[in-house]
Every structure is written in C-alpha cells, then in structure tokens.
Amino acid sequence: MHFQWYPGHMTKAKRQMQEDIKLIDLVIELVDARIPLSSRNPDIDELGKHKARLILLNKSDLADPKQNEAWSAYFKSKGFFVVKIDARRRNEMKTIQNVILEACSEKIERDRKRGIKNRPVRAMVVGIPNVGKSTFINTFAGKACAKTGNKPGVTKGKQWIRLNKNVELLDTPGILWPKFDDQMVGLRLALIGSIKDEILNIDELSLNLIELLQKYYPGMLRSRYEVDEDQEPVKVLEQTAVRRNCIQKGNEPDYSKAASLVIDEFRSGRIGKITLEFPPVTD
Ligand code: G4P
To answer: Where is the CP-type G domain (predicted)?
Structure first.
C-alpha cells in the first residue's frame, strides 16, 4: 500500500509555527498512545528545542496500559514531561495544569526574580490531524474557549485562551503532519484512522492488523472472534467473516465486510487495549 501526504500544507503550517513559537513558553504535543512515535512530527523537536515540552499520550484509554507506562518512561528519559490522558475526560486536566506549571518552573522563577508577577504561562498545542487536539482544547479550556473575533467578516488575529490566572493557550494550534519515513509508519497511521479510508485498501489493512495482533497480542483475536489464530491472516479473516455472519451471495464469506468490522472494532477498542509500536530500547 502506498501512502501520501501534502507538502504544501505542511510548509505553511511550519512557517506559521516558527512565528508562533517565539511567543510561547511551553509546547504541548499530543501523540496517539497506540503509536506514539509514528504519530509525531519529527520537526517539532527542532521547532520546540528551546521550550519546555509536555507530551500528552492521548487516547490512552484505547492503548495497552503496560505500554502506556513504557512510553511514559521512554519520553521522560528523553527529557519530556508526560501525562497520559483520554482527552474526552476532564479528570486528568488538573494534573496537566500542575505539570504545565512544573515544566515552566524555571520561567516562573525567572519572572519572579525580575519582579514580574502573575504572568501566565503561554502554551501552544500541537499534533498531527485526528490525534485529539480539538477535543483536548475543548475539555481543557471548557467554556473559556469562547472566542470573540470569530465572526464572519471579523479578521481574526492571534487569540489567547485564558484558562485561568496561570495558563494561556495560543488559539491557533499548529497542525503538523507525520513523516512517512517508512511504510510501517503509514500503515500504523492508517490503522488508527489518521488517513482517509477512501484511499485505503481496507482488506489489505485488516490482514496487516491481523498479522500484528497475532505477533504482539496472541489470543486476542481468538477470544474476540472465536477463530483459530494459528493460521494465515486471510484464513483468520475468513473465519471471522463466518463467525460474524459476514456472508455474501452464494454463501461465500464477505471478506470486505469482515475486514471493515475488524478495523472498526480495533479502532474503537472493542478488540482490546492495543498498542502497535513499542519504545526503542534506550541505554
Ligand atoms: P484533531 O483536532 O486532532 O484533528 O482531533 P479531534 O479532537 O477532532 O479528535 C479526533 C477523534 O478522536 C474524535 O472522534 C474524538 O472524539 C476522538 N478522541 C479524541 N481524544 C480521544 C481519547 O482520548 N480517547 C478516545 N477514545 N477518543 C478520542 P470522532 O470519531 O472523529 O468524533 P466523535 O464521533 O467522537 O465526535
């Protein structure tokens, strides 16, 4: 399968961020906990190199809890602050607020020494499309999200969303695109639903998923679909079709229907809590 992205959009977004980054103290980067490296844009490390950095392992509710811990440890070992979240829920928002202040403690101390009091920390939220940025901002900022210049005909300048007296978010979140360094990155992004399904071959995608699950989560397909897992992925798909009544004319298994079902059930977490890439071993 071949995956593509759009370099034109990417260049524009990057230029915008290079401007915006001068105004901020902290970069909050959302990644998808199921594929934390493949869902990053590598340029963000360069863009944010002199800033405090917070990684939010989002959609952690869908990922393998053990791997969530491993990824948290990995990013912490690289000098990031890390919080794992489900951006739809408010329960972690207080923790995030505290971690933001901790991440910016040097700046707060610098301000204090200069006699500047109560200057809020300014943060920019970045992430690749579909990673949950809007959801996070809505949950985190809540009602504060209401914007004033957002009416037709009103030129919208840069807007700061004041969360409280301590934190402001820049309301033009930088959108960054992933880099398809290798086809596995494209495959993982396709699996989590970050690439339009219309341009994907779902049948092939489901076979790739089955293969990954056989390798990393043995037993999971068996317990979900009551299939014999120890056979070719296409045979597992065929049995799944039969078990789930995906049958077409002539009493033949409907592979495409079964493929969509497996992909949907993976994405919604019904097959299980699954992580599709693992932290590189660090020394
Ligand atoms: P974006 O701005 O980064 O492009 O992403 P957005 O917030 O639109 O989120 C993309 C999808 O991911 C949404 O689902 C959203 O509900 C879901 N989502 C965001 N964060 C989490 C999370 O932590 N856990 C889970 N399980 N889902 C999350 P959607 O299907 O596109 O919309 P909807 O049907 O939920 O409204």
So the answer is: 10-178
CA of 124 to the centre of ligand 1 (A): 19
Confirm if 271 and 240 have CB atoms less than 8 A apart. no
What's the maximum distance between 2 C-alpha atoms anywhere in the chain?
Answer: 80
Q: Which domain holds residue 22?
A: 7-175
Do the domain assignments include residue 185? Answer: no
The ipTM of this complex is 0.96
Q: Whose CA is nearest to atom 27 of ligand 1?
A: 59
Confirm or reject: Cβ of 201 under 6 Å from ligand 1.
Answer: no
Among 89, 164, 177, 76, residue whose Cα is nearest residue 123: 164
267 lines ligand 1 (CB under 6 A): no
Residues 191-230: pLDDT tens digits? Answer: 999 887 777 899 999 999 999 999 999 999 999 999 999 9
User: How far is ligand 1, taken at its centre, from the CA of residue 59, in Å?
Assistant: 8
CATH code of the domain in which 217 resides: 1.10.1580.10
* Region of 175 on the Ramachandran plot (φ > 0 left; ψ -120 to 50 alpha; else beta): beta
Residue 167, class by beta-carbon neighbours within 10 Å (0-12 exposed, 13-18 middle, 19+ buried)?
Answer: buried
- Point out the ligand 1 atom lying closest to the alpha carbon of residue 175: 3
SS3 256: helix
62 lines ligand 1 (CB under 6 A): yes
Measured CA to CA, the distance from residue 113 to residue 267 in angstroms comes to 49
Question: Per the structure, how many domains does the chain have?
Answer: 2
Sign of CA dihedral 189, 195, 197, 198: negative
